[in-house]
Design goal:
Elements (H helix, E strand, L loop, with lengths): L11 H7 L15 H7 L4 E4 L2 E4 L20 E6 L2 E7 L13 E6 L4 E8 L5 E2 L2 E5 L1 H9 L2 H16 L6 H12 L3
Antiparallel strand pairs: 1-2, 3-4, 4-5, 5-6, 6-7, 6-8
Helix pairs in contact: 4-5
Length: about 180
């Protein structure tokens, strides 16, 4: 051993050997990048009625609820050209192409919302006679209500229309009969 040699600079390995109670400094780990963070995320879960449900957006068509007396109005947005309109279904069965279900059609107009009844007559011909107009407030309220409430509002407006002097009583009575069937 060389007595003239200078002592070596203290290192963490030397410190550990001399004093085992001290710990060696740990180099900080590199921070993960944003792509690594995205890969490590797991879907959030919500606990509802002791069942775990994964949050996700449903894709595809929404299921049609039954159109019972107490359920909300079933409305489907439709468009004919540039005209915005809505179809109010009157049956719990989902509409299919060629299916001859009776429904209401609501269209935007200058003075409010025009309501028509879409049905097929005895000869199988599609009819869409005008029933009444609804104001913006009436239409918003009707969208939150049930089919029975909507049909009652339209039937009341048909009665008001029939009370006018120049109204075609037979035609309005037939339309009123068809609308009252949904009460």
């Amino acid at each position: 051993m060389d007595l003239n040699a200078k002592p070596a600079a203290p290192t963490s390995a030397n410190n550990l050997a001399q004093n085992p109670a001290t710990t060696a400094p740990i180099a900080p780990s590199p921070t993960p990048t944003s792509t690594q963070k995205a890969e490590t995320k797991t879907p959030k879960t919500i606990s509802r009625n002791s069942k775990d449900v994964t949050q996700s957006k449903q894709k595809g068509k929404a299921k049609l609820k039954s159109a019972g007396q107490s359920s909300r109005l079933q409305i489907r947005a439709t468009r004919k050209g540039s005209q915005e309109s809505w179809t109010v279904t009157t049956s719990a069965k989902p509409a299919t192409k060629g299916n001859k279900q009776t429904s209401f059609r609501v269209r935007v107009s200058d003075v409010g919302y025009r309501v028509c009844l879409v049905y097929y007559d005895d000869l199988g011909k599609r009819r869409e006679p005008y029933l009444c107009y609804l104001s913006a407030g009436e239409w918003q309220q009707a969208k939150r209500g049930s089919l029975a409430n909507f049909a009652k509002r339209v039937a009341d407006k048909l009665v008001d229309r029939a009370a006018k002097e120049d109204a075609n009583i037979e035609k309005l009575a037939e339309l009123s009969r068809r609308v009252i069937a949904f009460l």
